[in-house]
Amino acid sequence: MAIPSPYSGVSTLAFVARASAFTFGLVYGSMKLSYLQAKAKYNKKAEAKGHH
Predict the structure, then answer these.
(1) Which of 2, 4, 27, 33 could form a disulfide bond with 8, CB atoms 3.0-4.6 angstroms apart?
(2) Which residues form a coiled coil (predicted)?
């Protein structure tokens, strides 16, 4: 039996690490996006209030 190289792509730990990092990135990105959209909406509302 051959010893697998460190980067053979069969490591369960590496797969789990990549999958969790990807999932974390998706969750973080969606939270950041919704935060920025809410902030932009608030700023737009405040700006419209200031002009009238």
Answers:
(1) 4
(2) none
